[in-house]
Amino acid sequence: MLKTSEKNTRSFYNWFDRERIVHSLELVQNLIVVLLCIGLFCTMLIRLGDIFISLLQPLRFQDITSDILFILILVELFRLLIIYLQEQRISVGVAVEVSIVSVLREVIIREVLEIPWQQILAVCAFLLILALLLLTRAWMAKIFNTISLENNQKLSENARDHSVEKRVPI
């Protein structure tokens, strides 16, 4: 028979199962991401309706461009969340693209001629860094794909060599 303290200890360890806790937290996190997706989608629909209503009034190019870029930012964020749900990772490329469009939107809203030259220089440096990040990501992906292809070729060659050895009598 088990003592009461041993029963309590076993039930504590059963309750404190790390895999079950992590799985539960991942489910909650996925629920939050789904709710964010629904919120972003509703926001996009509302902003799209606002754009069509603003087209009935005299056109203000800056406002319409700003709204369109805002919807594009929301679309990219939506895509980022969908990728997260599918692959359980954040896509760096999409996140950088969102950052670039966000910076350009702010520049368009504030009009380039009204921004001090120091801020324009800082924005240019930031955009250059984001572009380098995108290029580095693409370069790293190409390297990893090349390594993966080489490993797959070696595996298939080894498999062929073993199958040939099995067929040839000694």
Topology at a glance:
Blueprint: H1 4-15, H2 18-54, H3 61-87, H4 92-110, H5 117-167
In words, what does this structure look like?
It contains five helices and no strands. The longest helix has 51 residues, at 117-167. It is mostly helical and 170 residues long. The protein has helices spanning 4-15, 18-54, 61-87, 92-110, 117-167. The protein has a domain at 4-115. Keywords: Cell membrane, Membrane, Transmembrane, Transmembrane helix. It is found in: Cell membrane. InterPro entries: P_starv_induced_PsiE-like.
Summed up, the helix count is 5
H-E order? HHHHH
Rounded to an integer, what's the Rg over CA atoms? 27 Å
Helix-residue proportion: over 70%
Total strand segments: 0
What is the makeup of the main sheet?
Answer: none
Q: Per DSSP, what share of the residues sits in E-state strands of 2 or more residues? A: under 5%
- The SS-based structural class is mainly alpha
Uncertain regions spanning at least 5 consecutive residues: none
Amino- and carboxy-terminal Cα gap: 63 Å
Calculate the mean pLDDT score and round it.
81
Shape: extended
Would you summarize the structure shown here?
InterPro entries: P_starv_induced_PsiE-like (IPR020948). The protein is mostly helical and 170 residues long. Helices cover 86% and strands 0% of the residues.
